[in-house]
Amino acid sequence: AAGVIQSPRHLIKEKRETATLKCYPIPRHDTVYWYQQGPGQDPQFLISFYEKMQSDKGSIPDRFSAQQFSDYHSELNMSSLELGDSALYFCASSLGGMGDEQFFGPGTRLTVL
Amino acid sequence: EDQVTQSPEALRLQEGESSSLNCSYTVSGLRGLFWYRQDPGKGPEFLFTLYSAGEEKEKERLKATLTKKESFLHITAPKPEDSATYLCAVRGVGGTYKYIFGTGTRLKVLA
Q1: Domains in chain B, ordered, with CATH?
Q2: Rounded to 5 degrees, what are φ and ψ at A26?
Q3: How far, in Å, CA of A50 to CA of B71, rounded?
């Protein structure tokens, strides 16, 4: 079965640079979620989109922005990167605005030097 | 504030030694409680959804149960391939889309 696709899988950036992470949800899934997971920590919710509209917002820094496109893929844009932004970034998708089960992608490992 | 606490933080079992993982939660209204398995450097893999107290779900050697305050993930006769971090998450009612995760239980099953 098709799963959530994330790209790139690994990304290395310098401080103050920008990064763009992409997420392609499971086909027919219309809701996308972004999570940040630091080493040894639980995933922290950043933001979600349903039908291309922001549906919920968590602890996303103002330096980050995200959107969902007409084909339901989503992009997380991160600017003025800081060392503390180094983490695994997961995208998850679900079916329906309040679809309960979220299916996670393999993650993008971002390293900020 | 919604909160999820998992215990123990880490657990080492011998192959075949059954045990249980605990997930205690406080949420104003529970829409669902979710169990995931996460291998190092990989995305969480969905295991179960539980909605109401008394509900139980099973999958191979795993069984999840739910009460009004906590959930248990029972592992029967575990094998080394069951070694992973098991995450519990809750979703509240009221239109929120986000999961609140616990910090997980790192399970190591020794052959």
Answers
A1: 3-110 (2.60.40.10)
A2: -60, 140
A3: 29
pLDDT higher than threshold 90 for residue B33: yes
What are B78's two structure tokens?
A: 């575990």
CATH 2.60.40.10 matches A5-103: yes
The domains of chain A are located at 5-103
| Spatial distance between the Cα atoms of B82 and B38, rounded to a whole number of angstroms | 10
Nearest-by-CA chain B residue for A94? B97
Across the interface, whether the CB atoms of B43 and A98 are under 8 A apart is answered no
The pLDDT tens digits for A41-90 are: 999 999 999 999 998 899 899 999 999 999 999 999 999 999 999 999 99
| Contacts with B44 from chain A: Cβ below 8 Å | 43, 90, 104
> How far does Cα B8 stand from its chain's mean position?
11
